[in-house]
């Protein structure tokens, strides 16, 4: 799985837009990376990884696997190395030291922030009966339930247009009359703010969550 922040970083490393990256290198609504014909990662070459400097979190963690339970408890385990992996894997050091050496910190932070926003998004859209593809606002306006519901998920297109930071920020910045950030980190921060603004506006339209679960009867 890849998030919008990881897509943006890899696209910049390849000298292309996030929009083009999604069209060429992503599958499953832009949530996974496309593999080569040999079943291997399309970015791995004899000279090394083409996006190594901006590789996604799952690659930075390898050979560790990470799980988070419903309480937020985080655990790490060692995965079985791939047959052709040339990495040196040992038992020396600590998980924290390994994560630090791989630059995992910012990626974990972004993943948690996006995860919280997507969880909120799913909850709000579920309340208004929207399923499938989630379209982002046009010219800064939140998408209506009717417009979002008209689009079924498309394999080759982003499941949510929020997955494309370049396109999302182009709309948001034009509506706000502000400049689009040049750097990756600044773009990610503004994208997170844009998503929060949209969700705040949507929640203001439909009201705060009820005191009882949807469909349950009040006592």
Distance between the termini: 42 Å
| Low-confidence runs | 132-156
Number of discrete helical segments: 8
Beta-strand percentage?
Answer: 5-15%
| Rounded radius of gyration (Å) | 19 Å
The biggest sheet amounts to: 2 strands, antiparallel
Major β-sheet strand ordering: 1-2
Structural class from helices and strands? mainly alpha
Commentary on this structure:
This protein is mainly α and 219 residues long. The protein has one domain (4-206). The chain has helices at 4-13, 18-25, 57-61, 95-101, 104-127, 145-149, 165-176, 184-206, and strands at 26-27, 32-33, 44-45, 48-49, 64-68, 74-78. Helix 1 packs across helix 2, helix 5 (104-127) packs parallel to helix 8 (184-206) and helix 7 (165-176) crosses helix 8 (184-206). It is globular, with a radius of gyration of 19 Å. The model is unreliable at 132-156 (pLDDT under 50).
């Amino acid at each position: 799985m890849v998030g919008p922040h990881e897509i943006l970083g890899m696209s910049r490393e390849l000298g292309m837009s996030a929009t083009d990256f999604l069209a060429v290198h992503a599958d499953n609504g832009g949530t996974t990376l496309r593999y080569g014909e040999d079943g291997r990662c399309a970015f791995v070459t004899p000279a090394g990884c083409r996006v190594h400097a901006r590789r996604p979190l799952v690659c930075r963690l390898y050979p560790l696997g990470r799980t988070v339970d419903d309480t937020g408890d985080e655990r790490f385990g060692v995965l079985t190395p791939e047959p052709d992996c040339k990495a040196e894997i040992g038992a020396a050091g600590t998980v924290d030291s390994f994560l630090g050496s791989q630059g995992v910190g910012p990626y974990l932070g972004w993943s948690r922030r996006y995860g919280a926003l997507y969880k909120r998004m799913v909850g709000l859209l579920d309340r208004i009966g929207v399923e499938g593809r989630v379209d982002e606002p046009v010219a800064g306006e939140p998408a209506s339930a009717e417009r979002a519901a008209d689009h079924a998920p498309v394999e080759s297109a982003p499941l949510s247009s929020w997955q494309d930071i370049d396109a999302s920020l182009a709309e948001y910045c034009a509506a706000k009359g502000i400049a689009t950030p040049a750097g990756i980190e600044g773009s990610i921060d503004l994208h997170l703010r844009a998503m929060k603004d949209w969700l705040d506006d949507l929640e203001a339209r439909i009201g705060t969550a009820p005191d009882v679960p949807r469909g349950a009867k009040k006592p």
